[in-house]
Amino acid sequence: xxxxxxxxxxxxxxxxxxxxxxxxxxxxxxxxxxxxxxxxxxxxxxxxxxxxxxxxxxxxxxxxxxxxxxxxxxxxxxxxxxxxxxxxxxxxxxxxxxxxxxxxxxxxxxxxxxxxxxxxxxxxxxxxxxxxxxxxxxxxxxxxxxxxxxxxxxxxxxxxxxxxxxxxxxxxxxxxxxxxxxxxxxxxxxxxxxxxxxxxxxxxxxxxxxxxxxxxxxxxxxx
Length: 223
Hints:
- It is a single chain.
- Helices cover 40% and strands 17% of the residues.
- The protein is of the alpha/beta class.
- The protein has a seven-stranded mixed β-sheet. A five-stranded parallel β-sheet has the order 1-4-7-10-13. The chain has a four-stranded parallel β-sheet with strand order 2-5-8-11, with no helix packed on it.
- The longest helix has 37 residues, at 186-222.
- The N and C termini lie far apart (99 Å).
């Protein structure tokens, strides 16, 4: 446990350009504090002291704004950057050297039992506000874009964006025209669809009105 904590500390110092030294990370980084106390709660959880484990995790949530279930399995070097609002579920598995930003949820859909939460491979980055929901795997060195909603497995070395998320780059090769900057707006798309439907209906009404007028004119001529 303590070897992992030392590795966590050094990893954050190396990966965060704002960190000036390890002491600053140790005393001031809420993401490090959350992982630090998770290590203790997980130790208690594995030794069947589940009430104490949950007590530690809930106190940590209150102090840091980060909720990590003590039953989760987390490898070395997890960096939770600006970590407010992060939620990590009970059956989540996280590999080594992963990065999570604020607002990330590693959760379930409410439809599964047993393994309900995702598995992140090594070196995975999950952007702010992203939701990864379900018992599937995100492959090694993959990236999840900000505010993406991931509901299916993501291959290794991939970039996934959108709602629901889809892979737009794999092994450095673009496999889709969608990117994080040009994520489609579903509300705007629906408004455009409705606008087109209204325009079609207006054309049909105009055509029917013209047809009725023509028939009325013809009737008057005949009578």
